Structure formats: structure tokens, C-alpha cells
Amino acid sequence: MTTPIAEKLLSPTANVDYYLLHHQNDADMPAALNAATLSLIKNKADAYVICADACYLSDSEMEQWNICFRKLPRDWHLLPAAVHEQIRDIKPEYEIQWQELYREHMTGNEFYDYIQENFDLGSTASRLIRNILDYVEAQEFSDTKLAQHHLHALLDGAFGLTQEEILQFGAGLEPETVGGYRIIDRVFVEDLVFKLGYNPNAIEPYSTWRCDNRDNAHNYWGHYWPDKTTAQTDLLMRSDAARTDTPYDHTLLLEPRTSLKSTLKANAERSKAEFSGTTLPTPPGDAR
Asked: In this structure, what is the dihedral angle of CA atoms 39, 42, 47, 49, given to the nearest 10 degrees?
């Protein structure tokens, strides 16, 4: 069994260090906080927030080292936004699993009751809200986020309802998948939707598609990518090209990666030739 790494995250709080325990080359293998993995943390801080799949330290040990443990994906919502961004780049499935397993959504009736209890609406406004909720539920959207987007468009700025409150709507809706990829982001351009998908088991784990908003099942022109950053760039560039009606060639995003690969290979071959048959000096401080 491989040993996990303790990856230090940029901390949003002074004197508190954040760490994510994970297996760098095996995303599916759970990582646990225990005496062995605790020893991987070398930097001294006043307090620690350590994220992992499980924890086997006792309460007294946690208190001794001033550790706050966050079990992922269960405690995803307890982490700061700045930490969310970093963990998304390392192990994005945590957020996906939290959305699927732990986030509670309201049905249309529950959301209507919530609005009635928290906002002072007249009878006309109440009937309008009821009709809007009925309309969104009747569309049979295949995904919670898609339904929330339409609800937000219809209720944007109405009676002080926030986007965070709208995110509570959508119970009973299944996450959208395209070709085995879980849709994790969308950009809407008039009648079009551009989607970003993630599949941790695929050779190219990220992909983008173009979709006719009026026919959500028809996704086409898939672009497949090995990393999230390039996929997000592609998502924004192809949606911006549609918005401005300008041509866009996604293969140009491949050129820097190909050049870098070739450069690294050439440098490695040159270094091998230069040092062939020579003895490298012992680094300073080496006890050998």
C-alpha cells in the first residue's frame, strides 16, 4: 500500500496551516489521518486543519496537537472558499460527492413554503412564485444546477431572494452526465449551453460540449482534456466565440503542451549525454 502525501494548502487564516492528505497517484485510494500520516507534517503552526477521508487519532491527541479534522466529502461545506478552490484542483470529486450525498435540496412545495415564511409577499406575488416553481419543475430538467439556473433567471432580483437561497431548490433531480462525465460547470449563451464535464476514470478526465439549450439531451462537439485548467480555458473561449460570433480553434490549446513535452524530452536527452560516464558531486549536507 502506498503512503499518502500531506499537501500543504495556502491558508486563509494566519497561524493556521491547512493540509490535504491524499494519494498522489491513486485518487480512488482513501487517505487517513493517523500517527504515521501526522508525522508527514513538518512545519510548526499554532493550529492545523487537516482534511482526509478518515481519522484514527484520539480526541486527546487531536487536542494535544491543536488539530481540527475535516472529513471529506462530508465536511466540504465547513471549509473556506479559498481552500475549496485548491482542493478542486487536487481532488475535484470531493465536491461532486458532497453535492450528491450531503447537500439537502427542497422540493417546489418546500421552497414555496420557505419563501412564504421568510418574505412578506402579497397574494399576487405569491401566486406568481407558485406558477414559476410549477413551471420549472414541469420542465423535467435532468440536473439540479440546470433547474437552479432557470429559476435564478426567472427570480433574479425578486423580493431580495439570494442566489444562495435559490441553490436550496432542486430536490429529486439527478446530476447530469454526458458520456460518463459528470457536468460540473456551464456557460449559457443565448440559446446555447457550453458544459464542462469530469470523469476521474477517463484517460482524458475533463471534457467540454456544446448543447442546444432547447434540447438538453443533444450534446455535441466534445473537446477532451487531460487537466482542469485547459478544459476551463476551452469552456470560456468557445462560449466567448459563440457570444461574439468569432471563429475559435481549440487545437491551438494543444500546441503549448506539445512544445513543453518536446522541450523537456530534449533537455532530458541532452543532460543524459552531458553526464554520461561522469560522477555527480555529493550534495552539501549529505552524510554518505
From this structure: -60
pLDDT bracket for residue 147 (50, 70, 90): confident
Contact between 54 and 30 under an 8 Å Cβ cutoff? The reply is yes
Name the band, by pLDDT with cuts 50, 70 and 90, for residue 171.
Answer: low
Q: Of 200, 17, 173, 16, which is closest to residue 94 (Cα–Cα)?
A: 200
Round the average pLDDT of the chain to a whole number and report it.
Answer: 79
Which residue bears the cell 432557470? 150
Separation CA 53–CA 48 (nearest Å): 16
All 3 cell numbers of residue 52?
482526509
Q: How does DSSP assign 155-213, residue by residue?
A: HTTSTT--HHHHTTB-TTPPPPEETTEEEEEEEEETTEEEEEEE-TTSSS-EEEEEEET
Instruction: Give the integer Cα–Cα distance in Å for 3 and 21.
Output: 10
CA distance 269 to 263: 10
Pick 267 or 60 by higher pLDDT.
Answer: 60
CA distance 129 to 70: 38
Predicted model pTM: 0.44
pLDDT at 38 over 60: yes
CA pair distance 230, 163, nearest whole angstrom: 28
238 pLDDT higher than 80: yes
- What is the rounded distance in angstroms from the CA atom of residue 214 to the CA atom of residue 220? 14
d(CA 185, CA 143): 11
Run of H or E including 5:
strand 5-9
d(CA 71, CA 151): 32
